[in-house]
Amino acid sequence: MITAIVMVDAEVDKIPEVADAIAGVKSVHRVYSVTGDVDLIAIVTVPEHEDLATVIPDHIAKVEGVKEIKTYLAFQEFSRADLEAAFDIGLD
C-alpha cells in the first residue's frame, strides 16, 4: 500500500465542511484539523501510485473550499506499538 499525507489549506469559514467532504473520499482514512501552517491533514492509502493521481487532484483538490494542497509520500511507517508487538513473543 502507498500512503500519502495531504496537507490542506482551506477557506477558514468552511473548514468543517471541507474536512467532512475529504473524509468521504474513497481511500482517505483519516482527516485531522490541526494548528500550524495548514488547516487539515488527510491520510490517504492506495494500492498503486497511479491511484494517487485520481484521489488527490481529482477529488481532494476539487472539494469546495480547498485553497491549496501539498502532498507527501511516506517511505516507511514506524510505530512503537508495532515494534513492541513484533518483539513480544510471550516469554515471561
From TrEMBL:
GO terms for molecular function: DNA binding. InterPro entries: Dimeric_a/b-barrel (IPR011008), Tscrpt_reg_AsnC/Lrp_C (IPR019887). The keyword Protein biosynthesis does not apply. Transmembrane segments: none annotated. Residues 6-76 form the Transcription regulator AsnC/Lrp ligand binding domain. Pfam families: AsnC_trans_reg (PF01037). Keywords: DNA-binding. It comes from the Bacteria. This is DNA-binding Lrp family transcriptional regulator.
